[in-house]
Amino acid sequence: MADQLNSVEVRSGDTGTVKDAQDVLSGQSKKGALARLLPFLGPAFIASVAYMDPGNFATNIQGGAQFGYMLLWVVVASNIMAMLLQTLSAKLGIATGQNLAELCRTHYARPITLFLWGLMEVVAMATDLAEFLGAALGFNLLLGIPLWLAGLMTAVATFLILGLERYGFRPLEAVIGALIAVVAGSYLVETILDRPDWGIVLNNAIVPRFSGTESILLAAGILGATVMPHAIFLHSALTQDRIVVKDPKLLKRLYRFEIVDVLIAMIVAGAINAAMLIMAASTFFYQGLTGVGTIEEAHLTLQPLLGSAASAIFAVSLLASGLSSASVGTMAGQVIMQGFLHRHIQPWLRRLITMVPSLIVIMIGVDPTRTLVISQVVLSFGLPFAVVPLILFTRRRDVMGVLVNHRATTLAASAAAVVIIALNIYLLYQTFLVTTQPAS
After folding, report:
1. For residues 61, 152, 183 and 66, what is the CA-based torsion angle, rounded to 10 degrees?
2. Which of 49, 123, 156, 279 has the fewest CB atoms below 10 angstroms from its CB?
3. Does the structure show a pLDDT above 50 at 4?
């Protein structure tokens, strides 16, 4: 037992949490099951913020308003894929002590590394655009202030949240968790007010179907908003040195706790995504308001349909989502740059640089909701370049050691990658070839 205790190293500023985790892994903790689990909860919740950001609001509202519950199965399938891929990402960090970007830099030729870095930076910019715009819209809808002023308030709030990193990982995890709770609580209330037909909801959650090119575009957007490339890179970084374990038995034990972390976080994220689409479908589509296609329209329309409280709750949830995801997006961007290029840039400076495109979009008056949807499609196109390296690394025993994938795990992850790539190719074909052909 002494050897096992010495195999757990503390590399985090939050020594209390790590000490508790050390006691649990070594078998010395006498606490109850929930108390033993708590030290390991956190990384997946931070990563899961990417799965309920303002881009999800845009794609789910449009999908629900235009097609009812039809695309709910896309939310469910995307969330299942996200669970698998985030688990692999967490395992990668635990097993190797490196994140996905660092492993790409180590194992791939420099031209490939630079290509992946450039692509992931574009993805990070699209992500940041969605998150920043969403938080600004939240301030705008809640306080009635101009969008440009709301954008500045978003930047300040994000700086304050990111400043918590200096005090260890627990304060930041606590704030992010609180913001997630606000979003979850808001949509719990919205769903109760909606009173959806649960029989129809269940049928559409399990029966796949499309209805034209626009539904495929929104499906790709939902996929891009749910399974996000930067979250895959970030999760491996969140686990790589949070609790460092050398003993093979403790590695497996730590990984099992991380699986629970992922399952809880992703079930919450999936439920929130489903509630978004259900709200839009039951409130708009089934009331004949299929033309509701923007977040602003949804907010205004909710008030006469469900009451002023519903529209206020919607704005609060959008604000909480935007602030949490903007902070997490900045963290992911830092991981991507440092991992691929081995260069560090201060989070506040990266936040300052990446907010400029968002402010430009706000100033020139581009439709925020449509911009959010397109940003999610960009994320969907970037997904294969995060998913494929993740699968390739986690299937290698020389990289993963005792935590190498089982064959069934690799097959399931590969099937998810095929679905992602196939959907994107079909979307390209429908959008740029079929729709541009002259009518006969």
Report:
1. 0
2. 156
3. no
Q: Indicate the domain borders of the chain.
A: 49-434
Residues 219-244: pLDDT tens digits?
877 776 677 888 899 999 999 888 88
DSSP string, 262-320: HHHHHHHHHHHHHHHHHHHHHHTGGGT-TT--SHHHHHHHHHHHH-HHHHHHHHHHHHH
CA-based diameter of the chain, in Å? 78
**What is the Cα–Cα distance from 317 to 410, expressed in whole angstroms?**
36
Q: Is residue 330 within 8 Å of 347, Cβ to Cβ? A: yes
Most confident of 125-139, 174-188, 198-212: 198-212
Token readout for 96 is: 């190797």
d(CA 87, CA 412): 12
Place of tokens 């979009």: 361
Q: Using CA atoms, how far apart are residues 210 and 203, in angstroms rounded to an integer?
A: 14
* DSSP-derived secondary structure for 225-243: HHS-HHHHHHHHHHHHTTS
The secondary element (H helix, E strand) that includes residue 244 is strand 244-245
- Give the bridge partners for 245, in sequence order: 8
What's the start-to-end Cα distance of the chain, in Å? 77
C-alpha 423 chain-centroid distance: 19
Residue 5, phi then psi, degrees to nearest 5? -60, -40
| Angle, alpha carbons 370-427-389 (nearest 5°) | 100
Q: Compute the distance between CA of residue 107 and CA of residue 178 in angstroms, rounded to an integer.
A: 38
Residue 390 backbone zone (phi > 0: left; psi -120 to 50: alpha; other: beta): alpha
Pairing status of strand 244-245 against strand 8-9? antiparallel
| Spatial separation of the C-alpha atoms in residues 60 and 187, rounded to whole Å | 13
DSSP 40: G
Task: Name the class of domain 49-434.
Answer: mainly alpha
Give this prediction's pTM: 0.83
Q: Can you tell me the distance from the alpha carbon of 52 to that of 265, in angstroms, rounded to the nearest whole number? A: 11
Per-residue pLDDT tens for 264-307?
999 988 888 888 888 888 888 877 766 665 566 665 555 555 56
Could you tell me which residues come within 8 angstroms of residue 192 by beta carbon, excluding any fewer than 6 positions away?
none
